[in-house]
Protein backbone atom coordinates (compact mmCIF):
# COMPACT_ATOMS: atom_id res chain seq x y z
CA UNK A 1 0.00 0.00 0.00
CA UNK A 2 2.75 2.42 0.91
CA UNK A 3 4.69 1.36 -2.14
CA UNK A 4 1.72 2.13 -4.38
CA UNK A 5 1.24 5.53 -2.84
CA UNK A 6 4.95 6.27 -3.17
CA UNK A 7 4.87 5.20 -6.83
CA UNK A 8 1.90 7.41 -7.55
CA UNK A 9 3.64 10.33 -5.89
CA UNK A 10 6.82 9.88 -7.92
CA UNK A 11 4.79 9.50 -11.14
CA UNK A 12 2.80 12.63 -10.35
CA UNK A 13 5.97 14.62 -9.79
CA UNK A 14 7.36 13.44 -13.12
CA UNK A 15 4.13 14.36 -14.91
CA UNK A 16 4.17 17.80 -13.32
CA UNK A 17 7.77 18.27 -14.50
CA UNK A 18 6.88 17.14 -18.02
CA UNK A 19 3.77 19.32 -18.14
CA UNK A 20 5.77 22.24 -16.79
CA UNK A 21 8.48 21.74 -19.52
CA UNK A 22 5.91 21.52 -22.35
CA UNK A 23 4.16 24.57 -21.07
CA UNK A 24 7.36 26.56 -20.91
CA UNK A 25 8.24 25.46 -24.48
CA UNK A 26 4.82 26.52 -25.73
CA UNK A 27 5.20 29.85 -23.99
CA UNK A 28 8.63 30.36 -25.62
CA UNK A 29 7.29 29.51 -29.10
CA UNK A 30 4.35 31.82 -28.60
CA UNK A 31 6.60 34.66 -27.46
CA UNK A 32 8.89 34.20 -30.47
CA UNK A 33 5.91 34.20 -32.83
CA UNK A 34 4.46 37.28 -31.15
CA UNK A 35 7.83 39.05 -31.32
CA UNK A 36 8.19 38.28 -35.04
CA UNK A 37 4.64 39.44 -35.70
CA UNK A 38 5.25 42.60 -33.69
CA UNK A 39 8.41 43.35 -35.68
CA UNK A 40 6.58 42.71 -38.97
CA UNK A 41 3.61 44.81 -37.88
CA UNK A 42 5.91 47.57 -36.67
CA UNK A 43 7.66 47.66 -40.05
CA UNK A 44 4.31 47.68 -41.84
CA UNK A 45 3.37 50.77 -39.89
CA UNK A 46 6.40 52.55 -41.37
CA UNK A 47 5.73 52.06 -45.14
CA UNK A 48 5.54 55.82 -45.89
CA UNK A 49 9.15 56.16 -44.72
CA UNK A 50 10.35 54.85 -48.11
CA UNK A 51 11.08 57.69 -50.50
CA UNK A 52 12.39 57.97 -54.09
CA UNK A 53 14.45 61.13 -54.52
CA UNK A 54 17.19 62.78 -56.59
CA UNK A 55 15.77 61.53 -59.90
CA UNK A 56 18.04 62.42 -62.84
CA UNK A 57 17.53 61.54 -66.52
CA UNK A 58 20.74 61.05 -68.47
CA UNK A 59 21.38 60.55 -72.19
CA UNK A 60 24.12 58.25 -73.40
CA UNK A 61 25.86 57.06 -76.53
CA UNK A 62 24.57 53.50 -76.17
CA UNK A 63 21.78 53.58 -73.55
CA UNK A 64 19.68 56.06 -71.63
CA UNK A 65 19.59 55.80 -67.85
CA UNK A 66 17.67 57.16 -64.89
CA UNK A 67 19.62 57.74 -61.68
CA UNK A 68 17.73 57.94 -58.38
CA UNK A 69 18.04 57.43 -54.64
CA UNK A 70 15.89 55.33 -52.31
CA UNK A 71 15.69 56.63 -48.72
CA UNK A 72 14.39 54.77 -45.66
CA UNK A 73 13.55 56.66 -42.47
CA UNK A 74 12.06 53.84 -40.47
CA UNK A 75 12.72 50.10 -40.39
CA UNK A 76 14.46 48.55 -43.40
CA UNK A 77 13.49 47.34 -46.87
CA UNK A 78 14.91 45.05 -49.52
CA UNK A 79 14.61 46.29 -53.10
CA UNK A 80 12.90 43.90 -55.49
CA UNK A 81 11.85 45.51 -58.79
CA UNK A 82 11.44 48.84 -60.59
CA UNK A 83 8.71 49.75 -63.08
CA UNK A 84 8.57 52.80 -65.35
CA UNK A 85 5.25 53.67 -66.96
CA UNK A 86 4.07 50.19 -65.95
CA UNK A 87 6.93 48.57 -67.86
CA UNK A 88 9.37 46.38 -65.96
CA UNK A 89 12.96 47.62 -65.87
CA UNK A 90 15.08 44.60 -66.74
CA UNK A 91 18.49 46.19 -66.26
CA UNK A 92 19.09 48.04 -63.03
CA UNK A 93 21.59 48.02 -60.20
CA UNK A 94 22.01 49.54 -56.77
CA UNK A 95 24.91 50.03 -54.39
CA UNK A 96 22.81 48.22 -51.76
CA UNK A 97 19.78 45.96 -52.02
CA UNK A 98 18.88 46.12 -48.30
CA UNK A 99 18.36 49.69 -47.16
CA UNK A 100 18.27 50.36 -43.43
CA UNK A 101 16.86 53.27 -41.50
CA UNK A 102 18.67 56.52 -42.30
CA UNK A 103 20.42 55.06 -45.35
CA UNK A 104 20.22 55.87 -49.06
CA UNK A 105 20.52 53.42 -51.92
CA UNK A 106 21.81 54.87 -55.19
CA UNK A 107 20.18 53.14 -58.16
CA UNK A 108 20.84 53.16 -61.91
CA UNK A 109 18.04 52.13 -64.27
CA UNK A 110 18.54 51.51 -68.00
CA UNK A 111 15.40 52.68 -69.74
CA UNK A 112 14.60 54.46 -73.05
CA UNK A 113 12.96 57.47 -71.46
CA UNK A 114 11.50 60.19 -73.68
CA UNK A 115 12.66 63.79 -73.77
CA UNK A 116 10.16 66.20 -72.19
CA UNK A 117 7.71 63.44 -71.18
CA UNK A 118 6.42 62.47 -67.72
CA UNK A 119 7.54 59.11 -66.36
CA UNK A 120 5.92 57.17 -63.51
CA UNK A 121 8.63 55.37 -61.50
CA UNK A 122 7.46 52.60 -59.15
CA UNK A 123 9.53 50.58 -56.67
CA UNK A 124 8.34 47.28 -55.22
CA UNK A 125 10.15 45.78 -52.20
CA UNK A 126 10.55 42.12 -51.28
CA UNK A 127 7.71 42.39 -48.74
CA UNK A 128 5.50 43.99 -51.44
CA UNK A 129 5.67 47.55 -50.21
CA UNK A 130 5.19 50.03 -53.07
CA UNK A 131 6.35 53.60 -53.52
CA UNK A 132 5.81 55.64 -56.68
CA UNK A 133 6.79 59.06 -58.02
CA UNK A 134 6.15 60.89 -61.30
CA UNK A 135 8.98 62.91 -62.78
CA UNK A 136 9.24 64.82 -66.05
CA UNK A 137 12.29 64.28 -68.23
CA UNK A 138 14.14 67.47 -69.17
CA UNK A 139 13.42 69.42 -72.33
CA UNK A 140 16.45 69.04 -74.59
CA UNK A 141 16.73 70.89 -77.89
CA UNK A 142 18.55 68.72 -80.44
CA UNK A 143 21.89 70.16 -81.53
CA UNK A 144 24.57 69.07 -83.96
CA UNK A 145 28.07 70.18 -84.90
CA UNK A 146 30.27 68.90 -87.69
CA UNK A 147 33.94 69.60 -88.39
CA UNK A 148 36.01 68.52 -91.36
CA UNK A 149 39.23 67.10 -89.94
CA UNK A 150 40.97 65.94 -93.10
CA UNK A 151 40.49 65.73 -96.87
CA UNK A 152 42.55 63.39 -98.99
CA UNK A 153 42.34 62.75 -102.70
CA UNK A 154 44.14 60.05 -104.63
CA UNK A 155 44.32 59.58 -108.39
CA UNK A 156 45.06 56.17 -109.83
CA UNK A 157 44.88 55.04 -113.44
CA UNK A 158 42.78 57.99 -114.50
CA UNK A 159 40.38 57.91 -111.55
CA UNK A 160 39.97 60.21 -108.55
CA UNK A 161 38.82 59.12 -105.09
CA UNK A 162 37.98 61.61 -102.35
CA UNK A 163 38.17 60.77 -98.63
CA UNK A 164 36.84 63.19 -96.02
CA UNK A 165 37.18 62.64 -92.26
CA UNK A 166 34.49 64.35 -90.21
CA UNK A 167 34.04 64.77 -86.48
CA UNK A 168 30.38 65.00 -85.49
CA UNK A 169 28.84 65.63 -82.08
CA UNK A 170 25.12 65.68 -81.40
CA UNK A 171 22.93 65.95 -78.29
CA UNK A 172 19.28 64.97 -78.12
CA UNK A 173 19.50 62.92 -81.32
CA UNK A 174 19.10 59.20 -82.02
CA UNK A 175 19.98 58.85 -85.69
CA UNK A 176 22.76 60.47 -87.70
CA UNK A 177 23.60 60.38 -91.37
CA UNK A 178 26.78 61.95 -92.73
CA UNK A 179 26.52 62.63 -96.46
CA UNK A 180 29.29 63.91 -98.72
CA UNK A 181 28.48 65.39 -102.13
CA UNK A 182 30.98 66.38 -104.80
CA UNK A 183 30.13 68.94 -107.48
CA UNK A 184 31.98 70.78 -110.20
CA UNK A 185 30.57 73.85 -108.43
CA UNK A 186 27.78 74.67 -105.99
CA UNK A 187 26.02 77.94 -105.16
CA UNK A 188 22.98 77.92 -102.89
CA UNK A 189 19.95 79.81 -104.17
CA UNK A 190 17.71 79.57 -101.07
CA UNK A 191 14.58 79.17 -103.15
CA UNK A 192 11.35 79.28 -101.11
CA UNK A 193 9.27 76.09 -101.28
CA UNK A 194 5.58 76.14 -102.23
CA UNK A 195 3.03 73.37 -102.64
CA UNK A 196 -0.37 73.47 -104.32
CA UNK A 197 -2.78 72.72 -101.49
CA UNK A 198 -6.48 73.26 -101.94
CA UNK A 199 -9.03 70.71 -100.61
CA UNK A 200 -11.46 71.89 -103.28
CA UNK A 201 -9.17 70.68 -106.05
CA UNK A 202 -7.00 67.95 -104.51
CA UNK A 203 -8.17 64.34 -104.27
CA UNK A 204 -8.07 62.69 -100.85
CA UNK A 205 -4.82 60.77 -101.40
CA UNK A 206 -3.25 63.91 -102.84
CA UNK A 207 -4.19 65.84 -99.70
CA UNK A 208 -2.69 63.16 -97.46
CA UNK A 209 0.55 63.19 -99.41
CA UNK A 210 0.72 66.98 -99.43
CA UNK A 211 0.18 67.03 -95.66
CA UNK A 212 2.93 64.45 -95.17
CA UNK A 213 5.38 66.49 -97.26
CA UNK A 214 4.61 69.70 -95.35
CA UNK A 215 4.96 67.90 -92.00
CA UNK A 216 8.23 66.16 -92.87
CA UNK A 217 9.92 69.32 -94.16
CA UNK A 218 8.67 71.24 -91.11
CA UNK A 219 10.30 68.69 -88.80
CA UNK A 220 13.65 69.89 -90.23
CA UNK A 221 12.63 73.54 -89.86
CA UNK A 222 12.03 73.93 -93.60
CA UNK A 223 8.80 75.74 -94.45
CA UNK A 224 6.69 74.46 -97.31
CA UNK A 225 4.09 77.15 -97.89
CA UNK A 226 0.69 75.84 -99.04
CA UNK A 227 -1.03 77.72 -101.86
CA UNK A 228 -4.73 77.50 -102.66
CA UNK A 229 -6.01 77.95 -106.19
CA UNK A 230 -6.19 81.75 -105.97
CA UNK A 231 -2.77 82.10 -104.31
CA UNK A 232 -1.21 79.81 -106.91
CA UNK A 233 -2.71 81.96 -109.66
CA UNK A 234 -1.14 85.08 -108.15
CA UNK A 235 2.31 83.57 -107.72
CA UNK A 236 2.16 82.08 -111.21
CA UNK A 237 1.84 85.60 -112.61
CA UNK A 238 4.82 86.87 -110.58
CA UNK A 239 6.98 83.86 -111.55
CA UNK A 240 9.50 84.05 -108.64
CA UNK A 241 12.57 81.85 -108.41
CA UNK A 242 11.13 79.10 -106.23
CA UNK A 243 10.41 75.41 -105.78
CA UNK A 244 6.82 74.42 -106.56
CA UNK A 245 5.48 70.99 -105.59
CA UNK A 246 2.51 69.78 -107.61
CA UNK A 247 0.78 66.69 -106.21
CA UNK A 248 -1.51 64.44 -108.25
CA UNK A 249 -4.26 63.32 -108.37
CA UNK A 250 -6.46 66.40 -108.39
CA UNK A 251 -10.25 66.33 -108.53
CA UNK A 252 -12.95 68.19 -110.42
CA UNK A 253 -16.07 69.86 -109.06
CA UNK A 254 -17.88 66.51 -109.02
CA UNK A 255 -15.19 64.85 -106.91
CA UNK A 256 -13.80 62.77 -109.78
CA UNK A 257 -10.07 61.97 -109.60
CA UNK A 258 -7.95 63.70 -112.22
CA UNK A 259 -4.58 62.16 -112.99
CA UNK A 260 -1.93 63.93 -115.09
CA UNK A 261 -3.50 67.27 -114.22
CA UNK A 262 -2.50 70.79 -113.20
CA UNK A 263 -4.31 74.07 -112.44
CA UNK A 264 -4.97 76.32 -115.41
CA UNK A 265 -2.78 79.12 -114.01
CA UNK A 266 0.26 76.90 -114.65
CA UNK A 267 -0.70 75.64 -118.10
CA UNK A 268 -3.39 77.79 -119.71
CA UNK A 269 -3.56 81.28 -118.19
CA UNK A 270 -5.58 82.63 -121.14
CA UNK A 271 -8.13 79.83 -120.79
CA UNK A 272 -8.40 78.80 -124.44
CA UNK A 273 -7.42 75.16 -123.91
CA UNK A 274 -4.03 75.42 -125.63
CA UNK A 275 -0.74 75.22 -123.72
CA UNK A 276 1.84 76.37 -126.24
CA UNK A 277 0.33 79.79 -126.97
CA UNK A 278 0.99 80.92 -123.37
CA UNK A 279 4.75 80.49 -123.83
CA UNK A 280 7.39 82.70 -125.38
CA UNK A 281 9.01 79.50 -126.61
CA UNK A 282 5.87 77.75 -127.81
CA UNK A 283 6.01 75.20 -124.99
CA UNK A 284 4.13 76.13 -121.81
CA UNK A 285 3.84 78.80 -119.15
CA UNK A 286 5.54 76.37 -116.73
CA UNK A 287 8.44 76.00 -119.16
CA UNK A 288 8.97 79.76 -119.34
CA UNK A 289 8.87 79.99 -115.56
CA UNK A 290 11.54 77.31 -115.26
CA UNK A 291 13.68 78.45 -118.17
CA UNK A 292 13.72 82.20 -117.58
CA UNK A 293 12.96 82.64 -113.87
CA UNK A 294 14.53 79.59 -112.25
CA UNK A 295 11.47 77.64 -111.09
CA UNK A 296 12.13 74.10 -109.88
CA UNK A 297 8.96 72.16 -110.63
CA UNK A 298 8.45 69.01 -108.53
CA UNK A 299 5.77 66.67 -109.85
CA UNK A 300 4.37 64.04 -107.51
CA UNK A 301 2.21 61.18 -108.74
CA UNK A 302 2.40 62.19 -112.41
CA UNK A 303 4.95 62.21 -115.24
CA UNK A 304 2.67 64.27 -117.50
CA UNK A 305 0.84 66.93 -115.48
CA UNK A 306 0.04 68.90 -118.66
CA UNK A 307 -2.58 66.49 -120.02
CA UNK A 308 -5.61 67.78 -118.10
CA UNK A 309 -6.15 71.47 -117.35
CA UNK A 310 -8.21 72.17 -114.21
CA UNK A 311 -10.00 75.53 -114.20
CA UNK A 312 -11.15 77.59 -111.22
CA UNK A 313 -14.79 76.54 -111.72
CA UNK A 314 -13.78 72.94 -111.00
CA UNK A 315 -14.16 71.80 -114.60
CA UNK A 316 -11.29 70.36 -116.60
CA UNK A 317 -10.31 70.16 -120.23
CA UNK A 318 -7.83 68.01 -122.09
CA UNK A 319 -4.98 70.09 -123.48
CA UNK A 320 -5.83 70.67 -127.14
CA UNK A 321 -2.25 70.71 -128.37
CA UNK A 322 -1.06 67.64 -126.42
CA UNK A 323 -1.69 65.08 -129.15
CA UNK A 324 0.76 62.28 -128.38
CA UNK A 325 0.55 59.68 -125.63
CA UNK A 326 3.90 60.69 -124.11
CA UNK A 327 4.77 64.24 -125.09
CA UNK A 328 5.82 65.88 -121.81
CA UNK A 329 9.21 66.65 -123.39
CA UNK A 330 7.50 69.06 -125.83
CA UNK A 331 5.94 71.17 -123.08
CA UNK A 332 8.16 70.87 -119.98
CA UNK A 333 11.73 70.44 -121.29
CA UNK A 334 14.04 72.10 -123.86
CA UNK A 335 13.92 68.88 -125.88
CA UNK A 336 15.17 68.78 -129.47
CA UNK A 337 12.12 66.59 -130.21
CA UNK A 338 13.94 63.38 -131.05
CA UNK A 339 11.14 61.24 -129.69
CA UNK A 340 9.47 60.83 -126.31
CA UNK A 341 11.44 60.49 -123.10
CA UNK A 342 8.98 58.35 -121.12
CA UNK A 343 8.99 54.58 -121.53
CA UNK A 344 7.85 51.55 -119.60
CA UNK A 345 5.45 48.67 -119.33
CA UNK A 346 3.61 47.07 -116.45
CA UNK A 347 6.96 47.16 -114.64
CA UNK A 348 10.22 49.04 -115.00
CA UNK A 349 12.29 45.87 -114.98
CA UNK A 350 15.39 45.04 -112.98
CA UNK A 351 16.29 47.65 -110.39
CA UNK A 352 19.93 48.52 -109.73
CA UNK A 353 20.23 51.58 -107.49
CA UNK A 354 23.12 53.92 -108.35
CA UNK A 355 25.42 55.19 -105.63
CA UNK A 356 23.35 58.33 -105.00
CA UNK A 357 20.31 56.20 -104.09
CA UNK A 358 22.30 54.49 -101.33
CA UNK A 359 23.92 57.72 -100.16
CA UNK A 360 20.55 59.41 -99.78
CA UNK A 361 18.78 56.29 -98.50
CA UNK A 362 16.10 56.41 -101.19
CA UNK A 363 13.33 53.81 -101.12
CA UNK A 364 12.80 51.10 -103.69
CA UNK A 365 9.62 51.58 -105.66
CA UNK A 366 7.75 49.87 -108.45
CA UNK A 367 6.37 51.92 -111.30
CA UNK A 368 4.81 51.40 -114.72
CA UNK A 369 6.66 54.21 -116.53
CA UNK A 370 9.88 56.15 -116.07
CA UNK A 371 12.34 58.28 -118.04
CA UNK A 372 14.44 56.68 -120.77
CA UNK A 373 18.04 57.81 -120.28
CA UNK A 374 18.98 57.09 -123.89
CA UNK A 375 16.07 59.25 -125.09
CA UNK A 376 17.01 62.02 -122.66
CA UNK A 377 20.48 62.15 -124.20
CA UNK A 378 19.18 61.96 -127.78
CA UNK A 379 17.05 64.99 -126.98
CA UNK A 380 20.10 66.85 -125.69
CA UNK A 381 18.74 67.12 -122.15
CA UNK A 382 20.97 67.66 -119.13
CA UNK A 383 19.64 65.37 -116.39
CA UNK A 384 20.51 63.75 -113.05
CA UNK A 385 19.20 60.23 -112.36
CA UNK A 386 18.27 58.80 -108.95
CA UNK A 387 17.36 55.23 -109.87
CA UNK A 388 18.33 52.75 -112.59
CA UNK A 389 15.97 50.20 -114.13
CA UNK A 390 16.72 47.86 -117.03
CA UNK A 391 13.62 46.75 -118.91
CA UNK A 392 14.03 43.99 -121.49
CA UNK A 393 11.84 44.30 -124.60
CA UNK A 394 11.59 42.44 -127.92
CA UNK A 395 13.66 45.12 -129.60
CA UNK A 396 16.33 45.34 -126.87
CA UNK A 397 16.73 46.85 -123.42
CA UNK A 398 15.48 50.15 -122.07
CA UNK A 399 17.60 52.05 -119.54
CA UNK A 400 15.09 53.85 -117.35
CA UNK A 401 15.41 56.18 -114.38
CA UNK A 402 13.15 57.52 -111.66
CA UNK A 403 13.23 59.94 -109.90
CA UNK A 404 15.02 62.23 -112.34
CA UNK A 405 15.91 65.92 -112.47
CA UNK A 406 15.96 67.58 -115.90
CA UNK A 407 17.64 70.95 -116.19
CA UNK A 408 15.47 73.59 -117.83
CA UNK A 409 17.36 76.87 -118.31
CA UNK A 410 17.81 78.53 -114.92
CA UNK A 411 15.55 75.99 -113.22
CA UNK A 412 14.39 72.47 -113.87
CA UNK A 413 11.88 69.68 -113.48
CA UNK A 414 12.18 67.09 -110.71
CA UNK A 415 9.91 64.18 -111.62
CA UNK A 416 9.36 62.14 -108.46
CA UNK A 417 6.81 59.74 -109.95
CA UNK A 418 5.04 57.23 -107.68
CA UNK A 419 1.87 57.41 -109.77
CA UNK A 420 0.40 54.33 -108.08
CA UNK A 421 1.39 55.45 -104.57
CA UNK A 422 3.72 52.47 -104.09
CA UNK A 423 5.56 54.28 -101.29
CA UNK A 424 4.01 55.30 -98.01
CA UNK A 425 3.52 59.04 -97.57
CA UNK A 426 6.35 59.16 -95.03
CA UNK A 427 8.74 57.22 -97.28
CA UNK A 428 7.97 59.50 -100.18
CA UNK A 429 8.39 62.64 -98.07
CA UNK A 430 11.75 61.36 -96.80
CA UNK A 431 12.99 60.72 -100.33
CA UNK A 432 11.88 64.13 -101.57
CA UNK A 433 13.55 65.85 -98.63
CA UNK A 434 16.83 64.00 -99.21
CA UNK A 435 16.87 65.10 -102.85
CA UNK A 436 16.02 68.62 -101.70
CA UNK A 437 19.08 68.52 -99.43
CA UNK A 438 21.33 67.59 -102.33
CA UNK A 439 19.94 70.49 -104.40
CA UNK A 440 21.48 69.54 -107.74
CA UNK A 441 19.62 72.51 -109.26
CA UNK A 442 22.01 74.78 -107.35
CA UNK A 443 25.04 73.06 -108.82
CA UNK A 444 26.99 72.19 -111.87
CA UNK A 445 27.10 68.47 -111.24
CA UNK A 446 29.77 66.03 -112.33
CA UNK A 447 28.58 64.23 -115.50
CA UNK A 448 26.88 60.96 -114.59
CA UNK A 449 27.56 61.94 -111.01
CA UNK A 450 24.89 59.63 -109.63
CA UNK A 451 27.36 56.77 -110.05
CA UNK A 452 30.27 58.26 -108.08
CA UNK A 453 29.76 61.76 -106.65
CA UNK A 454 28.59 60.89 -103.12
CA UNK A 455 29.17 58.83 -100.00
CA UNK A 456 27.48 58.44 -96.64
CA UNK A 457 27.77 56.92 -93.17
CA UNK A 458 25.04 56.06 -90.66
CA UNK A 459 25.13 56.03 -86.87
CA UNK A 460 22.54 55.35 -84.17
CA UNK A 461 22.76 56.51 -80.58
CA UNK A 462 20.78 56.91 -77.38
CA UNK A 463 20.60 60.68 -77.29
CA UNK A 464 24.30 61.47 -77.57
CA UNK A 465 26.35 60.80 -80.69
CA UNK A 466 30.08 61.43 -80.85
CA UNK A 467 31.78 60.00 -83.86
CA UNK A 468 34.72 60.58 -86.14
CA UNK A 469 34.14 58.91 -89.49
CA UNK A 470 35.68 58.85 -92.93
CA UNK A 471 33.28 59.33 -95.84
CA UNK A 472 34.48 58.56 -99.34
CA UNK A 473 33.31 58.95 -102.90
CA UNK A 474 33.35 56.31 -105.59
CA UNK A 475 36.13 56.35 -108.20
CA UNK A 476 35.48 59.41 -110.40
CA UNK A 477 36.96 59.54 -113.94
CA UNK A 478 39.49 62.37 -113.93
CA UNK A 479 38.65 63.37 -117.48
CA UNK A 480 35.18 64.60 -116.45
CA UNK A 481 36.27 66.83 -113.56
CA UNK A 482 38.14 70.10 -113.68
CA UNK A 483 41.04 71.38 -111.64
CA UNK A 484 38.83 72.11 -108.66
CA UNK A 485 35.71 70.53 -107.21
CA UNK A 486 33.33 71.53 -104.44
CA UNK A 487 32.92 69.18 -101.49
CA UNK A 488 29.79 69.54 -99.42
CA UNK A 489 29.25 67.48 -96.28
CA UNK A 490 25.93 67.35 -94.44
CA UNK A 491 25.11 66.07 -91.00
CA UNK A 492 21.46 65.00 -90.96
CA UNK A 493 20.22 64.07 -87.48
CA UNK A 494 16.84 63.08 -86.05
CA UNK A 495 15.38 63.12 -82.56
CA UNK A 496 12.77 60.37 -82.65
CA UNK A 497 11.41 61.56 -79.27
CA UNK A 498 10.53 65.00 -80.58
CA UNK A 499 10.19 64.16 -84.28
CA UNK A 500 12.63 66.97 -84.97
CA UNK A 501 15.50 66.93 -87.44
CA UNK A 502 18.69 68.97 -87.58
CA UNK A 503 20.85 69.62 -90.64
CA UNK A 504 24.30 71.22 -90.61
CA UNK A 505 26.68 71.58 -93.53
CA UNK A 506 30.26 72.42 -94.42
CA UNK A 507 31.42 73.40 -97.91
CA UNK A 508 35.05 73.09 -98.97
CA UNK A 509 36.73 73.92 -102.28
CA UNK A 510 39.22 71.22 -103.19
CA UNK A 511 42.04 71.30 -105.73
CA UNK A 512 42.27 68.06 -107.69
CA UNK A 513 45.76 66.54 -107.31
Please describe what this structure looks like.
The chain has nine helices and 34 strands. With 513 residues, the protein is of the alpha+beta class. Among the domains are: 47-136, Immunoglobulins (Immunoglobulin-like, Sandwich); 140-188 and 439-513, Immunoglobulin-like (Sandwich). The strands form eight sheets. Strands 14-13-15-19-29-28-25 form a seven-stranded mixed β-sheet, sandwiched between helices. A hairpin with a 2-residue loop joins strand 3 (76-84) and strand 4 (87-88). Helix 2 crosses helix 9 (425-438). The longest helix is centred in the first third of the chain and has 43 residues, at 2-44. It starts with a helix and ends with a strand. The model has no long low-confidence stretch (mean pLDDT 91).
Summarize the helices and strands and which ones pair or pack.
Blueprint (H helix, E strand, L loop, with lengths): L1 H43 L5 E9 L6 E8 L3 E9 L2 E2 L3 E3 L3 E3 L3 E7 L7 E8 L4 E7 L6 E14 L2 E25 L1 E2 L6 E4 L7 H16 L4 E4 L1 H10 L4 E5 L2 E2 L5 E2 L2 E3 H4 L17 H9 L2 E5 L7 E3 L5 E3 L9 H5 L9 E3 L5 E2 L3 H6 L8 E4 H6 L4 E3 L2 E6 L2 E6 L2 E5 L2 E7 L7 H14 L4 E2 L9 E19 L3 E2 L6 E12 L4 E12 L2
Parallel strand pairs: 13-14, 13-15, 15-19, 18-20, 19-29
Antiparallel strand pairs: 1-2, 2-7, 3-4, 3-6, 3-8, 5-7, 8-9, 10-11, 11-31, 11-32, 11-33, 12-30, 16-17, 20-21, 22-24, 23-26, 24-27, 25-28, 26-27, 28-29, 33-34
Helix pairs in contact: 2-9
Amino acid sequence: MRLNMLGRKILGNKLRILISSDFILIIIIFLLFFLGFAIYFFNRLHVPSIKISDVRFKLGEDVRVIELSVEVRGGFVELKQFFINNLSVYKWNSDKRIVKEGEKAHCLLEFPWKIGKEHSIRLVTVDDQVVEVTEKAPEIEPSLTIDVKNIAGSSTQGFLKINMTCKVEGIGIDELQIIMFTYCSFERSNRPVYIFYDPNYLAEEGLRRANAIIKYFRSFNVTVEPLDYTELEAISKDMPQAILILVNPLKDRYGRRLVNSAPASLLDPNGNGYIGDDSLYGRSHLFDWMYDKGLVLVTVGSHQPHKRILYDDGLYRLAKDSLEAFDAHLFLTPSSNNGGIIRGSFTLGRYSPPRISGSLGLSYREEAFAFDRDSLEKNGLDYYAYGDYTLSTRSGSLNLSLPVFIKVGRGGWLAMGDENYWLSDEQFSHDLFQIYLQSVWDSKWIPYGWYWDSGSEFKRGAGIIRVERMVESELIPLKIVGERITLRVLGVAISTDLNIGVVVERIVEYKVP
